[in-house]
Structures are given as C-alpha cells and as structure tokens.
Amino acid sequence: MRRFLTAASISALASLALASGASAKPMTQTCTASSPNVIGKTITGSLFATNVDPSQARFATCAQAKKVMTKTTEIRVEEPRVTAAFRCTPTVKSTNPDVVSYKCVFKGADTATFIKLTFQVKYDQD
Fold first, then answer.
1. 16, 21, 31, 86: which could form a disulfide with 62 (CB 3.0–4.6 Å)?
2. Is residue 83, in this structure, part of any structural domain at all?
3. How many structural domains are present in the chain?
4. Among residues 64, 123, 56, which one has the least CA distance to residue 88?
C-alpha cells in the first residue's frame, strides 16, 4: 500500500511539473506605437496576458501589440477584424473627430493562453 501511495505521489508531482510550463501568473504592460492617422501620432495600449504557453509567448509582447495597433489604425478599422492573430472589436465613442476604443483578444487554440490588448485612438480628419 505504501509503495502505491509513493508511486501515486510521484506521478502527481510529475504531471504538476509538466502542466506548469505555461505562465499562469498574470502580466500587464503598457505598450506604445505610432500612427500618422491619429491625433498626436502616438498610441498607448494596455497588454494583459495570463496562462501564456511558451510556444505562444511571442504574442504577449509589446512588439506584437505594436503591430496590432499600427495595422489597426493604418486601415482605420471600425468593424470586428482579425489583425496579427488578435481578434479586434472596436467601439466608436464619438464622431467628428472619430474616437474609437479597441479590445483585441488572442486566445490559444489548444492552450489556455489569453492575451488582451486595449487601446483608444482619436483619428485625425483628413
């Protein structure tokens, strides 16, 4: 009986060690990007990530957030769209000038990875 409990304990610890490969610790960063389409030319976003799998860690970086913010404002997206692996949903806050708030989410397909990027821009009138 004692051998069985010891073997079961070792097995449980081994599976726990394998499962801890993903970073379950939540992370929040402030990221910036630039765009000629927004007033002030600077975009500031908040990047939140949790349960990031090592294979998907590149999506939880400011470099990836910068790509998303730049591409989204480059084409002035005001409808839901996938940009650089993030599903971005805009909310128009006001018009003339257009103020749009974006919530962009990346979810791991076969992992528990969850990354959220939020930012708000005021588009210039050209």
1. 31
2. yes
3. 1
4. 64
Is 8 a member of any domain?
no
Model confidence pLDDT, tens digit, residues 82-125? 999 999 999 999 998 899 999 999 999 899 999 999 999 999 98
Q: Is residue 11 part of a domain?
A: no
CB 98: neighbour CB atoms within 10 A? Answer: 18
Q: Which residue pairs, CB below 8 angstroms and at least 24 apart, start in 36-44?
A: 37/73, 37/74, 37/76, 37/121, 37/123, 37/124, 37/126, 38/73, 38/121, 38/122, 38/123, 38/124, 39/97, 39/122, 39/123, 39/124, 40/122, 43/69, 43/70, 43/73, 43/119, 43/121, 44/119
Parent domain of 86: 22-122
What is the average pLDDT value for the chain, to the nearest integer?
86
Count CA atoms closer than 13 A to 48's CA, side-chain side: 7
